[in-house]
């Protein structure tokens, strides 16, 4: 049995108890065995417990990034300030076509380093060569919800092979790495997968009891195309194909009608809001206040680094809290605590691990982070939730634990060789560019 | 004579030469005496020159924050997610009314620590008790453009006293601290100063050869009020009062017509764009792409911490680059380099110090910063300008020099006691809250 006793820390538990309180937390193996204002019962403490002085730190649940493509981290800064079609067709796709296993591995490793150091303890990843990503999740100590994203604009035999690969990956890796890996299956998007092909994913999701993930309504152009080709907007289209009969997480959901919002709420679909990516690619501003008001679970994703250009989920939290105020004209929408929920407890709900992740409560998984409060931008220490959302960043994260294991200590990854990972990412990029 | 020789650094000069190059820079006393790809001429180097290995650092001009209220840093997180009137009347004003000199000093000191550490080397500040702010500028080594902001909703004798105080401050401190302090005079805003009172500032600006600064068109409500009371929108109103006959910097300028944009361009008025504050207070989204297209100088300001909630100008740069893409629907507007210009060379132009600040060129003032490039979010090192804007933050700043003097070394202020300043800010806040 391993045990950690955090003494006299400032806790932001993100559950139904106090917003913040000073107190103690005990982690036994991979779970929180005690959290409260009082010191833990000595009878329940191991004499070998690691004691951590929490007096200058804030402790909160690890952040959950609900949409991304880690391997694309190699393409950071490779194409900015471009129209979507130029970005995609002339820049992203030709480079991605050159990827081999070690590139996927190098990009994913760099992404995981960035995410862990900035306080993300669980991430959703949709890409190909997912075995490589899964191995990096296993090695790094992070938690991953992984899925092979499939573009279906190809002959039927290729479609079949891709679907089979997606199912095989999902079945092989579900529950691996001590349960840190879970899986989904993912048709890439309604505009890249014919309806009959999407139906095969829905069937497979039923057959193998897997959740579904897809891109949806990111741009006006794809919504218009959907209406033109299928006579329906994407939400109704996916609903008709049975998509929402399974637990579903959709990324982006920028362009929605009131009816679509109501349908998403009714079908209990979770939305991954990607504010920075949506701004950078000029996709628009998602109707997040309306989604939340309708009762839709909205969490946050970075999308890939190629459209962001980093993986600090505190940045998405900040943009979510600020952007919708300015655009709606209402400074009270998405208050700080709601933005922080989007990055934690709503994230857990979006990956169907509510009650296990996203809050600091007894019995839950010990995925949590420690923030260094002794910094000028956290003074005066009036309201730490406000400070984390509006003034803080992933750079304030000092320590990170996943499943009770410390994966970042004093800002450095404990399970990964950061210098080697930076070097290998640079080498992979050079080869992709000139190879 | 003191001399610094930066060897083999990556330079982002922000002038008409290359976007970035690897090379050398020599600082002699307070100015850049050499910058270029080749090593400096040994005959021009002092044997005692401090040599700095630049191989893992990027060097760029220090950032220029063109609108703020440093003393309000004490009110960080004190009122978020509120309607403007509640925020102002129930929260800000009652606390500000309790300020005494040492509070202004404590708030300004904390603000300067934050700014220096995140790479800001010059800042515009409009508040009262400005002697306190000026003394902190003198002590800290930062550069300040300071002005006593005057609200004129008071009897005429009080108006006269305030104007006299504003003029006295501007005349006393202009050129002080080895020229690091320059001054302006500032009627607070058209909605807080009657027209006849604004005209007195204009006259004083002519009499004493001072530039003018004011808040303008931050909210729709104040624009509508201006039209109601004076029959003109704020730009035409200020123009009619002669405001723009002097060098002028206006903050916010969120709500503008095409005609107002054309008039600002014609009168050579600089605009301080405050994207985060405008979003947080739900003021709206300024028409920055249109302003830039019309030839208006647009720089960046944080506004006060009470509506931001930190002073990292890299954040404003990022928001400027991202926000206007998403809102306009055009991903090519405000490319990375243009956003970086807004934080540097356009900032210098906004405070009438172009050619002295905002770029790294021979003969210019040695106000510059060094960025630590050995971090995961800067890899692969494809495009450093893109990385600084979209992926970086003030937390990446390692060293800062102002006037050739190193004011931040390895992330710590050299002229200020950071721990004492944090403590004093906390103590001042407690006193304001409970006193």
Secondary-structure map:
Two copies of one chain form a homodimer.
Chain A: E1 3-11, E2 21-28, E3 31-36, E4 50-53, E5 57-61, E6 63-65, H1 84-97, H2 101-117, E7 120-127, H3 130-140, E8 143-150, H4 156-173, E9 181-183, E10 186-187, H5 195-207, E11 212-216, H6 220-230, H7 234-240, E12 248-252, H8 258-266, E13 270-273, H9 275-280, H10 288-293, E14 298-300, H11 313-328, H12 336-343, H13 345-350, E15 368-372, H14 384-391, E16 397-402, E17 405-409, E18 412-413, H15 418-434
Parallel strand pairs in A: 1-4, 1-5, 6-7, 7-8, 8-9, 8-10, 11-12, 12-13, 13-14
Antiparallel strand pairs in A: 1-2, 2-3, 5-15, 15-16, 16-17, 17-18
What report would you give on this structure?
Chain A is of the alpha/beta class. The first copy, chain A, has two domains: 3-62 and 367-413, Roll (Urease, subunit C, domain 1); 63-350, TIM Barrel, CATH 3.20.20. Chain A has 15 helices and 18 strands. In chain A, the strands form three sheets. In chain A, strands 1, 2, 3, 4, 5, 15, 16, 17 and 18 form a nine-stranded mixed sheet that branches. In chain A, strands 6, 7, 8, 9 and 10 form a five-stranded parallel sheet that branches. In chain A, a hairpin with a 2-residue loop joins strand 17 (405-409) and strand 18. Chain A is globular and about 65 Å long. The first copy, chain A, starts with a strand and ends with a helix. The interface between A and B is large, with 64 and 64 residues.
